[in-house]
UniProtKB/TrEMBL annotation:
GO MF annotations, alphabetized: 2 iron, 2 sulfur cluster binding; metal ion binding; oxidoreductase activity, acting on NAD(P)H
Keyword Transferase: no
Name listed for the protein in its UniProt record: AIFM3 factor
Top-level taxonomic group: Eukaryota
Domain Rieske: 1-73
Gene3D superfamilies: 3.30.390.30, FAD/NAD(P)-binding domain, Rieske [2Fe-2S] iron-sulphur domain
Keywords, alphabetical: 2Fe-2S, FAD, Flavoprotein, Iron, Iron-sulfur, Metal-binding, Oxidoreductase
Pfam families: Pyr_redox_2, Reductase_C, Rieske
The family this protein is said to belong to: Belongs to the FAD-dependent oxidoreductase family.
One Gene Ontology CC term in the entry: cytoplasm
Signal peptide from the UniProt entry: none
């Protein structure tokens, strides 16, 4: 149990974050809000309710009394020993409740909420609809085989079964009256008739539509790209396949991306080729950050190529860490072609002419929004195909919302400029806000992007949006692998990253979330 004092009031809560068990005693307390030090989830200390993702579940709360100067906490032993997701039955009526409470649908309510996508944005939207009292039909549709799962695990723990990383079990969705259609892909939408058509020839009408179809990995466009054992990492099946194929073999990874660098440390195989066709969240950020930190934020914006990022004095630090594990880097180069024998890849040929033995090739060169099925419609999209939404996650089409990786939305920390941010926490926040506005609640998105990753046992935290920053303030030492970096634009902090400095990034996220500005002088 975590005992919290806010001024003269005491609260008692579960002591570990339901997301991944972070010790909340090391978190950040601001007013009635407690933020996890690891991944930025926030909870109300009076109710235990979620106020910020990525946690999908609330904290249990316990009775507190003060007598004769002593604080007493009363809890049932049974509640203390139950798994986190079943603790929240005591929270009925207190807001953002765990979806493991059962919310029944009413057959008299004929309205249908159709959610395209099987990721966290659609999941949180479905749960929020039920939590907010919607009793009509909710249908989630995905082209995958599985219920929503933790995609970050695909490159971190590649020996897990899909069921091990499910975010909600099928029976949980069923208990809450959420229909979940698998292996079903949307091919077109008739917005006038409010109907979605699927690849199998079927169709479904809707009253409100959420498009949360995510993004897909870019494919190689070189000779030999169609050879066997040239892989993308998108699903649990891909993860298992790569691990099986690469064990004891020569692995070549194309692209110095977030996925690529984590694959290096997950599989730890002899060779990793890198091409330069990768983008970065923050142009030039490698001037102050190790490349593998940058790679984690490079999934979602901008146009700076990796051949720019390598021209910095700080880059050798993380590469040396991976090189010590048998990884070899080929920077400032591109892949010319893949060669094979009997239909299987055997060799990667670089632009320099150098040849690398390759039993397995993994491609991590960026992503594109899954929005091709909307090509001939009037829905507004940007040049990349991302759907344009406002802060209520509304598109330009009535009764149509969008969320997650597939959207471009106004970012407060960018003065309202649009961006696509491919973070789990952001997608969950999108899903929540979309659900509220599908129910006419008129709520706007208010969140500070929060990102995390792990590299060889080292945990990186990042909050904010550093796109377009012009200066940095560095506290600590990059070489000693303990640092806090502030990203400055127009004299104020717009983002921060850290290694071994918890809970500083959570603290900065709370300040930014409150609307306060941190000046460069204050950062220094």
């Amino acid at each position: 149990v975590l005992l919290v004092r806010n001024k003269k009031e005491f609260s008692a809560l579960g002591s570990k974050c339901p997301h991944y068990g972070a010790p909340l005693s090391k978190g950040v307390l601001k007013g009635e809000r407690l933020r996890c030090p690891w991944h930025g989830a926030c909870f109300n200390i009076k109710t235990g309710d979620i106020e910020e993702y990525p946690s999908l579940d609330c904290l249990p709360c316990f009775k507190v009394t003060v007598e004769d100067g002593k604080v007493f906490v009363t809890a049932k032993k049974k509640v203390l020993t139950l798994p986190a997701v079943t603790k929240h039955k005591q929270h009925l009526g207190l807001g953002m409740i765990s979806a493991f409470l059962t919310y029944k649908r009413c057959l008299l309510n004929r309205d249908t909420m159709l959610l395209l996508g099987g990721g966290v944005a659609a999941l949180v939207c479905a749960e929020t609809l039920r939590q907010e009292g919607f009793t009509g039909r909710i249908i989630m549709v995905t082209k995958e085989k599985h219920v929503p799962y933790d995609k970050s695990k695909l490159s971190k723990e590649m020996n897990l079964k899909a069921e091990d990383i499910y975010m909600r079990k099928p029976e949980c969705l069923d208990a809450n009256g959420i229909e979940f259609w698998t292996e079903k892909e949307a091919v077109s939408v008739d917005f006038q008739k409010q109907k979605v058509h699927f690849m199998d020839g079927s169709s479904q009408k809707y009253n409100q539509l959420l498009i949360a179809t995510g993004s897909h990995s870019s494919s190689l466009r070189v000779p030999g790209a169609d050879l066997q054992n040239v892989c993308l990492l998108q699903t649990p099946e891909d993860s298992s396949k790569i691990l099986e194929l690469a064990t004891g073999k020569n692995l070549v990874i194309i692209g110095a991306s977030f996925i690529g660098t984590r694959l290096d440390q997950a599989s730890r195989h002899p060779a990793a080729a890198r091409d330069t066709n990768e983008t970065s969240l923050q142009p030039g950020a490698a001037a102050k950050l190790p490349a593998w930190v940058l790679a984690g934020y490079g999934c979602f914006c901008s146009s700076t190529a990796w051949n720019f990022l390598v021209n910095t004095q700080y880059l050798p630090l993380p590469f040396q860490m991976l090189q010590n594990k048998g990884v070899k880097f080929y920077m400032k180069t591109e892949l010319r072609e893949l060669k094979g024998k009997d239909g299987k890849v055997t060799e990667a040929v670089l632009a320099s002419g150098e040849k690398l033995p390759a039993d397995v090739v993994v491609v991590g060169i960026g992503v594109f929004p899954n929005s091709a099925f909307l090509k001939d419609t009037s829905i507004a999209r940007d040049d990349s195909g991302a759907i344009l939404v406002n802060l209520r996650m509304q598109t330009n089409i009535p009764n149509v919302f969008a969320a997650g990786d597939v959207v471009s939305f106004p970012v407060a920390l960018l003065n309202g400029d649009r961006s696509s941010i491919h973070h789990q926490q952001v997608a969950e926040a999108h899903g929540h806000i979309a659900a509220l506005n599908m129910l006419k609640k008129e709520k706007e998105l208010h969140t500070v992007p929060f990102f995390w990753t792990t590299m060889l046992g080292k945990s990186i935290r990042y909050a904010g949006c550093g796109k377009g920053y012009t200066e940095t303030v560095v506290k600590g030492s990059l070489e000693q692998q303990k640092f806090l970096i502030f990203y400055i634009r127009d004299g104020f902090v717009t983002a921060a990253a850290s290694l071994n400095c918890d809970p500083m990034v959570s603290l900065i996220a709370e300040v930014l979330c409150s609307g306060k500005q941190i000046s460069k002088e204050e950062a220094e």
